[in-house]
User: What shape does this take?
Amino acid sequence: MIYDDNNVFARILRGEIPCKKVYEDTHTLAFEDINPLAPVHTLVIPKGKYVCMTDFIEKALDAEIAALQRAIVKVADIKGVKDSGYRVCANTGVEGGQEVPHLHFHVFGGRPLGRVLARP
Ligand code: AMP
Assistant: This one.
């Protein structure tokens, strides 16, 4: 998979575009979604150049994968939804509805979220 260095999250990681940071560690960055769909809507991304979930799992170090998963739960805790419940979602590829080609996990919460997918 070819990584586009000019995608918006690559630019956030380089500091070229601002973000509302929620959490950061060696391998991950979490920041508020610019167009929130729930009272809590935070994005958690790896700092490495991974296009999507498939790319990440096929190429990333175990330490990067573990850090990202742990960061998601840290974000849920920071945002106050760890106990009330939350949803984690990584849209992947064209039919998965992925728009930004840098892996990101959405963390949604703060209200009852209903079913995962609307019935067609
Ligand atoms: P997806 O459809 O899964 O690729 O989600 C991309 C998400 O990135 C959307 O929820 C957008 O609102 C969000 N987004 C796009 N640009 C920015 C930005 N500059 N800062 C924060 N979130 C963004």
Q: What stands out?
A: The chain has four helices and five strands.
